[in-house]
Amino acid sequence: MIELKSAGEIAAMREAGRVVAAVHAATREQAGVGVTLKHLDEVARTVIEEAGAGASFFGYHPSFGATPYPGVICTSVNGVMLHGLPTPYRLRDGDLISIDCAAFVEGWHADGTVSFTVGTPRDEDLKLIRVAEETLAAGIEAARPGNKLGDIGHAMATVGRGAGYGMQNDFGGHGIGRAMHESPFVPNVAPRGRGLRLRPGLVIAIEPSLMAGGRDDYYMADDGWSVCSGDGSRSVHVEHTVAITEDGPVVLTCP
Length: 255
Fold this sequence. Notes:
Elements: H1 7-30, H2 37-50, E1 54-55, E2 73-77, E3 80-82, E4 96-105, E5 108-117, H3 123-141, H4 149-160, E6 173-175, E7 182-186, E8 203-206, E9 209-211, E10 218-220, E11 227-229, E12 235-237, E13 240-245, E14 248-251
Antiparallel strand pairs: 1-4, 2-4, 3-11, 4-5, 6-7, 6-8, 8-13, 9-12, 10-11, 13-14
């Protein structure tokens, strides 16, 4: 069942989105060479708690997860595309990292992801991040009343695959609201003009992930959570929670 949100409910989700943005800012500031992923998770936990919010990821146990999720953020490094666990791994110069965070305030969730480099950046990583952000922006621009769900995936694939990057379509975006994951599924790649017609009040997380090697295949790591590029190439993941309104898309996870 797809639940449309009222203006007041969208405003409540915006508060959760501000917490997600604050987590992104704090973890980016702390993510230096030698810092552990576990420490970044602790930083995120502090930000969420001090905001009076809750951590949507902690204890989450979907069908594909080996165990309940042990952290409050996903920390995906280099060839890990999605759902990287916040382990004692220490960041190294030149690492590429994605921070995925979801938080809830008074029962309303928001979900977002940023990707960035640590220390000395590589030009190819900066390009990968830039194209991923452009891919996300194209998807957001297509999230307008009267368009179809497929228009979002088509817009993103046009940018991401058009730049030569791989894009998987099993882990994509989703509806969001009283639960972190609601209907509908939001594909990263889709035919134009197909699927659900977008209506004001629909709130979705749009979250493309790109793989530098150009292939679309991936595998699940032995930890039972980390989704890795099939060829080991570097990957990025970006995401915003977006409300579809009469006036167009409104991003709820910006600062």
